[in-house]
Fold:
Amino acid sequence: MDNSPSPQRACLIKVKMATDGQVEYESVLCVKPEVNVYRIPPRASNRAIRAADWKLDAPDWTGRMRVTARGKVVYVKLEDKISGELFAQAPVDEYPGTAVETVSDSSRYFVLRIQDDSGRKAFIGIGFGDRGDAFDFNVALQDHFKWVKQETEFRKQAQAPDTTPKLDLGFKEGQTITLNIGQSKKKDRSRPQSSGGLGLLPPPPGGKLAPPPSSRSTNHNTQPSTAGSDSGCLLDLDSSNSNSVTPSQPTSTASSDLWGDFDSVPQK
Structure:
């Protein structure tokens, strides 16, 4: 029975004790149950690496891959499927880089630079039977170093002094400010104009309107009509003067002259 971890990408955290006694965290980025290892011929030139030059039908070793990270460095570990014994390990400090390289003719194969405890290095070829496993391996490396880049930029911004000029909104020495609270400006109201172009007169300051002109001045200049002898003229004259104020002078002479004209008319 195979007790290997699930081929899905893992996000587990392991705790190890460093040599100086401090706790060192190791995160598992990716685990693949099966990977093939190939011996590759030495590079004759700077041309692109081709997986077709390897013996793909006869891998030199088959085991499990576990990708972990301690700090900024990624470790690609090739382990035995059953015992978990370490077969080879490749520390990766950048990607893309010389530690992990892609081939030109397939997306399922990579060139891995392994390193032992003494520092000796060698290049081997690795390949996955499924393209999804190769894709997960590639994405795990990209995500980690993207996080490393962002973390480095954040630290630089935190350590760098802020050289941008700051806006000084404080009061200078001796500077004052005046606030008008509860006072509002009165808006001038436009005066309406009549259609004839004559403006209305404003009301007097006291708020009182002048009384209309008295009827005395109009009726005082009224003269009695003497044009005819018809009785209707007398009625009109009496009705127009009924509301007029009579002068203080005696009217006996005027009335006698008026009736005197009717007396002079000869009777038939």
